Predict the 3D structure of the following.
Amino acid sequence: MSRRASRRSAAAAASTSAASAPALDGQRPRELLVVGPGVLGSRIARVWLDRYPGAVVVGQTNTTASHAGLTSIGVSPRVKDFDEDEPSAKRTFPYVVFSAPPSGSEDYAGEVEAALKYWNGQGAFVFTSSSAVYKNESGDACDEDSETYDLGANPRVDRLLKAERIVLNAGGIVCRLAGLYHSQRGAHKYFIKTPTLDSRADALVNLIHYEDAAELCIAALMSGSPSAVYLGTDGAPVTRGDIARLTVESGAYADAVVPTFTQTDGPRGRVMSNPRTRERLVWTPKYASFESFMTERRALDAYVPVASSRWAPRGRAHEA
């Protein structure tokens, strides 16, 4: 099947299924568009489909590389430059999640602005940002209302802040997520295979498991709170040294070795908490801390290969 025919088939299937999608409150169907269905976005899509059988979920990607996998979990894939004559071309959605990373676009703010055109303004538009926008890096407390960097101070952060502003001005929701991880992906996997790291062992890292981040984003979608900012973190910051130590001591990773951290100076990190997010979204993390994940759960989650045969994207390699 040609690429164009494949896109038309997926869009037609989504359009046909939409007619039978159950209504959320008698008026709004549970149609969801995920822009950037990578590791996090595909998890959101999967949970949405499990929770709302018969719902329509469309996953918008840059290429067709992941389309077979997305189809296998019930997502109707399309590329962002789909043909105008396809059935989905003029459709809008009550629920939209933008979870594509800045690294995948030269005009990130423009990508977010384009995605907003697919939102019909009914349910919610959620943009997954990063806790990296917060200015404090000296080991002090940080929550939803803490000061963020000024525009122009950090090019990487600028891309996020500009995108956040566009979303909030449009009435969308911003979810600032701490460091994402699961059993097969995250800082811990990078640490245990890198003998020497040019950073300080006592630097704090704030984390949230992918499963918990997906649940938080879905809670935000269902919250009906326009122009809101939420913070996704387990609230239990851990040092880089302890991340490596706990991972090795878990016994879940063969040949894992604690690296040597060569620095004693540099940013200390943040002590993040999110009381407002937990209260307003009625959300608490399943994985209370990285330590409990490694010691009590022995690094077992939905991503362990023997635990699930369902497709999941690998994502980009972690960088320190």
The first strand starts at residue 31 and ends at 35. The CA atoms of residues 71 and 77 lie 7 Å apart.
